[in-house]
Specification:
CATH topology of the largest domain: D-Maltodextrin-Binding Protein, domain 2
Strand content: 15-25%
CATH superfamily of the largest domain: Periplasmic binding protein-like II
Number of strands: 13
Structural class: alpha/beta
Helix content: 40-55%
Largest sheet: 11 strands, mixed
Number of helices: 13
CATH class of the largest domain: Alpha Beta
Length: 351
């Protein structure tokens, strides 16, 4: 057995203890630019200090893929990246390991991203918002609200929307005039779901559904859609790598939530998987990740390591316009209604 210690922020930290030599860890994440940023900021550096090789797989948040692995005992993954509601569901169903992350990090450092759950630790804060191409729509006539997004007469063309009930229903309510801070309360109240679907129905003939973050960006870069709902990190990365002028309108309201790193239930590589997540949650690794993809770090200590030009791309000055994917009301609503709403949404989208 190889035991190696590494230096983090000037202090000796036994992040990579109890790790087998030349072991392989499989991580399931969202792929695309997210996967690339995690590879460069987390997986490659961890492999250099721990003697573990990290293999990546793409996961589009279909919980059935986790359930089937647990039910059959055929584990394909060791670490998985989950949205807040999928993390809560997976933890309750016993699909991921229960780990006390406060044994490794100060809870207050992660409170801004939702804090630790019984099973998992937040990895970053992702914000999805209204995106348009400033090269095609001048600033003087740019959309400023979700009502503008719905206005296909003033701004003709298709609209890109996430092929998922979660986030999409929230956006529909913002387009119907609900303040971002009130979205979860309205959605979970009597008539809230019906209201969201009615608003979606208005735009449906113009919607092009996307299933991955890469697809959302490809569609607007190619001009296939005039505007899209997209995640802020994807937008910033596309602008840098393609020299484009995509703009995300945070002030219109945005859906913001943490992605969580979790250890798959029953993996024989739990110690190494835990070490990988610990490394990825350190301030140094978190800051490196934010520089690469412009998602806000989950570990608040990472902000001190970021320059003002990077912080400027994050939604920290628009958090009053966020519909947060966190809190007891949000979690209970989606855990109790998520499967039924997904089926209803899929039927709605297919009609």
């Amino acid at each position: 057995m190889c035991i190696k210690s590494i230096i983090l922020s000037g202090m000796l930290s036994a992040i990579a203890t109890s790790v087998c030599c030349a072991d392989t860890l499989t991580v399931a994440n969202n792929g695309g630019t997210v996967g690339t940023a995690q590879r460069e900021a987390f997986f490659k550096p961890f492999a250099q200090v721990s003697t573990n090789t990290v293999v990546e797989d793409t996961f589009n948040q279909e919980l059935a893929k986790l359930r089937s692995q647990i039910e059959t005992g055929n584990l394909l993954w060791d670490v998985v990246s989950l949205t807040a509601i999928n993390e809560a569901t997976a933890c309750e169903e016993g699909l991921i390991e229960k780990i006390d992350w406060s044994a490794y990090f100060a809870p207050k450092d992660f409170e801004g991203a939702g804090g630790f759950s019984e099973c998992s630790i937040p990895n970053n804060l992702v914000s999805g918002g209204l995106v348009y191409d400033a090269a095609a729509i001048p600033a003087s006539s740019a959309p400023r609200t979700w009502a503008d997004f719905w206005n296909v007469q003033k701004w003709p063309g298709k609209r890109g929307m996430l092929y998922r009930a979660e986030q999409t229903l929230e956006v529909a309510l913002m387009a119907d005039g609900v303040a971002p801070a009130d979205v979860t309360r309205i959605l979970s109240s009597e008539g809230g779901v019906e209201r969201a679907f009615r608003k979606l129905q208005e735009l449906k003939p113009y919607i092009k559904w996307w299933k991955s973050g890469d697809e959302s960006i490809r569609d607007i870069l190619s001009g296939e859609v005039a505007m899209t709902f997209a995640w802020n990190g994807r937008v910033a990365t596309a602008n840098r790598s393609n020299n484009r002028k995509l703009q995300i309108v945070f002030e219109a309201g945005h859906v913001s939530g943490a992605q969580y790193f979790s250890v798959m239930k029953g993996t024989p590589k739990r110690p190494a998987a835990t070490d990988l997540i610990k490394y990825s949650s350190s301030p140094t690794a978190q800051a490196d990740y934010s520089r690469r993809i412009d998602y806000a770090p989950a570990n608040a200590k990472a902000f001190a390591l970021l320059g003002p030009e990077t912080v400027a791309t994050l939604p920290k000055d628009h958090l009053d316009k966020a519909s947060f994917q966190s809190g007891k009301l949000y979690t209970e609503f989606w855990m109790n209604n998520g499967d039924a709403l997904l089926q209803r949404f899929l039927t709605f989208a297919a009609q």
